[in-house]
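Researcher: Structure prediction, please.
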Amino acid sequence: MSWELLKTQPRFARYGPSPLLEYLNRFPNFLYLLIVQALAALLLLVFPRHDTLRPVSLTLILTICVLDRLRNRGHSLVGSDSMNLLIFGALYLREIAPGPLTTQGCLWFIALQSCLSYATSGLLKLRTSHWRQGKVLRRIAQHPVFGNAPLARLLAGHPRVERWLGWSIMGYEMAFPCVLVMGYPGSWIFLGGGLLFHAFIALAMGLNTFFFAWVATYPAILCVTLYPGRTPVA
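Model: Predicted structure follows.
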């Protein structure tokens, strides 16, 4: 969103943003930061074992994640931003003190955080009567920003399908921590379901950042599930 809008938040309006935040967050400067972050991510992907590029890339990515969180908190859906911050924060801590123990700790933290996020989301939905009654998905599909008109018409014509989908989502999310004990091929079934789930959300609601943030946790889940105690090389 526009920095002119975001800086009207009470936490900024009360004291005014610092000159540094004012400079970094206005357009097009913030766009340049995102480009730098993307380039750092590309370097990390291409040279994951480079002892110089890896820590520099992680530092840039994590710093811009923090700046992005400070800029947008309160005016955006920050679920994916929070997950990105947790993932890169864990990787950065592992970079400070690399070793088998810290690598295993990093993998377990990311895997458990992912499982916790799914289970929490499912339990919160279960506590909501509208989710239990199967009335939420149609309202989401009718949302002026995140809605999907064809999906809204489909759900309006098939209320049983809407209720079945709602309970399926709640059940999947609450059961997701079972992926840690399912082994092979059960873990692949859970993660395959997650891929389809987030792909559907990305296509139907445009929340494509959620796809990348949560799928990024799946390698850690596979490592601690299928290869417990084994430390990856990089």
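Model: Residues 116-234 form one domain.
Researcher: Thanks, that helps.
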